[in-house]
Amino acid sequence: MLTPTGELVTAARARGRAVCAFNVITVEHAEAIVSGAEAAGCPVILQVSENAVRFHHGRLAPIAAAARAVAAAAHVPVALHLDHVVSAELLDQAAPNGFGSVMVDASRLAYRENVAATARAAAACHAAGLWVESELGEVGGKDGAHAPGVRTDPAQAAAYVAATGIDALAVAVGSSHAMLDRTARLDQDLIVRLREAVAVPLVLHGSSGVPDDDLTAAVRGGMVKINIGTALNTAFTGAVRATLDDRPELVDPRRYLTSARTAMAGTVTAALRLLSAGVPD
Ligand code: G3H
Ligand code: ZN
């Protein structure tokens, strides 16, 4: 069932566990994420990034409609989130397309400009009934908040949340987007200091590159929304390769997309069992 993102995040935080948000590129991603979540018995967030919208010829509506339909038929609570949004035009399309939340991404701007742009966008999104996440990295960071080595300062994070009125904060604590191996090490002390400094829930991006033990420690330390994208694509592409290596004569995409969808669902179930299911030890 389609559920507001804020409800899932609040419930996860109250349980001391995380809600995982997985990136949707194709309809098979959405189907796999929901199957994986149903197998784990956990709520889940389907998130569509501005990059994915660009892949769909710049149109949000088709992939949003697919994700919405898959979410509506699910046997677990499913939220829809629009991720890493830079374009104001795209932000305006979030609520009409059924999204319950957005991530306003002004993280490449210098601090003052990030605050001004995010506060403006957050006010507009709140007026449309959306839950708003945004991101703060290093002051003046040139490579975005999730370049390796970038860190969010707790005092600045507290000031940023107060000045922007956001509902959740994505922080830079050692993860990095699109890693193909799981070698990132998170700054666990910083996660605890950020949780103590900031009233809103914390969000971890670039989680595909983080090993299981660091992810579980991060959730114990105060991370509530865990964003996972690349791990699904690794599973998808690995399964397609293996299927076609084995059966090079196949031409019907349903044959190899079935294995891709199954592989992605397995990745989702494993992550949810680790980070979302049950109660903390
Ligand atoms: O917003 C999406 C995530 O940060 C995904 O990052 O692809 O490195 O897991 P990832
Ligand atoms: Zn991200």
UniProtKB/TrEMBL annotation:
Segments crossing the lipid bilayer: none
Xref: Gene3D superfamilies: Aldolase class I (3.20.20.70)
Coiled coil: none
Cofactor(s) the protein needs: Zn(2+)
InterPro entries linked: Aldolase_TIM, Class_II_FBP_aldolase, FBA_II
Protein name: Fructose-bisphosphate aldolase
Organism: Actinoplanes ianthinogenes
